[in-house]
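Objective 1.3, modelling of assemblies. Example input:
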Amino acid sequence: MASEHHISHQFDAELEAIKSRVLAMGGIVERQIEDAVVAIIDADSQRAEEVVAREKQVNGLEVAVDDEATKILVKRQPAASDLRLVLIITKAVRDLERIGDEAKKIAKLALKLTEEGPAPRGYFELRHIGAAVSEMLHDALDAFTRLDVDAALEVVRRDKTVDQEYRSATRELVTYMMEDPRSISRVMNIMWALRSLERIGDHSRNIAEYVFYLVKGQDLRHVGLENIESTVKSWK
Amino acid sequence: MASEHHISHQFDAELEAIKSRVLAMGGIVERQIEDAVVAIIDADSQRAEEVVAREKQVNGLEVAVDDEATKILVKRQPAASDLRLVLIITKAVRDLERIGDEAKKIAKLALKLTEEGPAPRGYFELRHIGAAVSEMLHDALDAFTRLDVDAALEVVRRDKTVDQEYRSATRELVTYMMEDPRSISRVMNIMWALRSLERIGDHSRNIAEYVFYLVKGQDLRHVGLENIESTVKSWK
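Predicted structure (tokens):
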């Protein structure tokens, strides 16, 4: 991550350390998503249990990073871009923790499906949207590391595609349930899992949007894709 | 809200001002939940449109409070409990914004239901859980204002009840859909609305948990109700 030269090398080291922790947390969370989706697709209850158990670790990392951030603020009283970075880090770990939470929910749905038997539909959509949002998270963290505004914009764009795919998958599954009402309970598990993936996409988008704020100090949350696109263009 | 005596009266005034803004935002969001639920129950599309339109205001408040908090950090470099307060405020407005987002989703489901015709079931549960989470939010903000640990604990307890009621409502609606598959699409709208209400309960619980951190500096997120109860007891 680009960083200004500080008088205190110690401070630089502290900032690097907290950033690394966020990225490590991101790596774990990314794997949580992938494992949770595979647990559903392979009806692998052991893998699902592992995801559920590992969520505690993710929660612990959020608390630890938050604590570290507070200490840096007290000790260093950073200004300008360093302050922005520390504040954004406390926001980003919140999003990562929420993603971890959604992954755990998906793992629990995997456990329900191994009990109730497989759903007759929805696995293709689950695999596809699962891969898309896990890539979004990966790219958002990458954009965050490299302070890459274009890569961040790309993640925001992809969130729109994921939302469309999610809606179309949901519609299809509702139609299927009407044709085969006995499958409703099992298909609903897939529906909830898709919903969680869609949320993971939203949180990944949040992380991407923080990059705009870090790089330019401009808060582009809530302004919509078109406004983000024209603002990023105006920076060139 | 209790506050220490500061050498700078100006600083006190700034903290009071930002707290008032958070509470004002909370008030708007509370009304958004209530209006969204009533919009579904009364099939009132005008009210639903108002909720959707008002969400922008909520988003704007989040950005404004965040901005204000950053300015305070730069200008005042607060320590100890003041720093905790400012950091928690940036977290709390995030939860309020997410609640506003869920309220908007409920309002959009109200619009779908006015098109598709009323669902045959689920209104009772919606009204009940809607009232419960809107009260939870109200009480969480109240606990936040008065730094009332016991009131905060009560909100955390109620979140558990809401989760149980949500699960039982969902089970019942799934059973109903199997009996009457033609109603699936309409009942699903109620299911998604209930899901949003359950999330609103989670966010209200988050706000309540911040009170423990503000009052005692102890981060009791993710530790579970029993541990929170015994920790709060140990403070007496």
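Helices of chain A lie at 9-41, 45-76, 80-116, 123-146, 149-179, 184-216, 225-234.
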